Amino acid sequence: ETGVTQTPRHLVMGMTNKKSLKCEQHLGHNAMYWYKQSAKKPLELMFVYNFKEQTENNSVPSRFSPECPNSSHLFLHLHTLQPEDSALYLCASSQDSPSDQNIQYFGAGTRLSVL
Amino acid sequence: GENVEQHPSTLSVQEGDSAVIKCTYSDSASNYFPWYKQELGKRPQLIIDIRSNVGEKKDQRIAVTLNKTAKHFSLHITETQPEDSAVYFCAGNDMRFGAGTRLTVKP
């Protein structure tokens, strides 16, 4: 365990469903990240939060909506997804922002299947 | 953001041989270069990193070298073992990852 917990571990949803992914870190870190991992793009950065503020949105479609209520929790709200959104979604955290040369600690991921 | 290119995409070696994976980056201001290992079904984990004030760093069988002039850094694994089989990722300053290298070590 790295101190970063993701739930659920597996999720199957239809294209009209709304669901949320949750990430929680117990490391006292200030930065949190969402990545998408698929066969096409092995580790694709989606969003970056630093001290609860979104500092990066890597041109992610609006059907993905992140939320960071505090430095320990990060959510990814999903709605009207497409089958090509099926992937492993990884959360990570680091002590400070990416530019500060910080090690990232990853969660185990949520395996999402969109039918 | 930083553009990081990683080669090769796959690498197969015999146990005991060395493996080298290379990444090039575009931002000359980059100053932090990590390498992550992801075993099958597991999360990525940092195995070694280097900062721009040094040219090489070693940790037992793994080492990373940095060439700031040419803007590339490489992961070196010596005396490879089957448990080294995994996907290895380099990352740029802004935590954008390379495309990954699938290393297979044959017993």
Multimeric organization: heterodimer
Span between termini of chain A: 31 Å
**Helix segment tally of chain B:** 0
pLDDT under 50 segments of chain A (min length 5)?
none
Q: How many whole angstroms does the radius of gyration of chain A measure?
A: 13 Å
* Helix content bin of chain A: under 10%
Secondary structure class of chain B reads mainly beta
Overall mean pLDDT of chain B: 94
String of helices and strands of chain B = EEEEEEEEEE
Topology:
The complex is a heterodimer of chains A (115) and B (107).
Chain A lengths: L3 E4 L2 E4 L4 E8 L5 E7 L6 E7 L2 E5 L6 E7 L2 E7 L7 E8 L10 E2 L3 E5 L1
Parallel strand pairs in A: 2-11
Antiparallel strand pairs in A: 1-3, 3-8, 4-5, 4-9, 5-6, 7-8, 9-10, 9-11
Chain B lengths: L3 E4 L2 E5 L4 E7 L6 E7 L6 E7 L4 E4 L2 E6 L4 E6 L8 E5 L10 E6 L1
Describe the 3D structure.
The complex is a heterodimer of chains A (115) and B (107). Chain A has 115 residues and is mostly beta strands. In chain A, strand 4 and strand 5 form a beta hairpin. Chain A is globular. The termini of chain A are far apart. By secondary structure, chain B is mostly beta strands. The radius of gyration of chain B is 13 Å and the shape is globular. The N and C termini of chain B lie far apart (40 Å). The mean pLDDT of chain B is 94. The chains are: A mainly beta (115), B mainly beta (107).
Task: From the structure above, extract its key features.
heterodimer; A: mainly beta; 7-stranded mixed beta sheet; 11 strands; B: mainly beta; 5-stranded antiparallel beta sheet; 5-stranded mixed beta sheet; 53% strand
Give a quick summary of the entry.
The complex is a heterodimer of chains A (about 120) and B (about 110). Chain A is an all-beta fold and about 120 residues long. Helix content of chain A is about 0%, strand content about 55%.
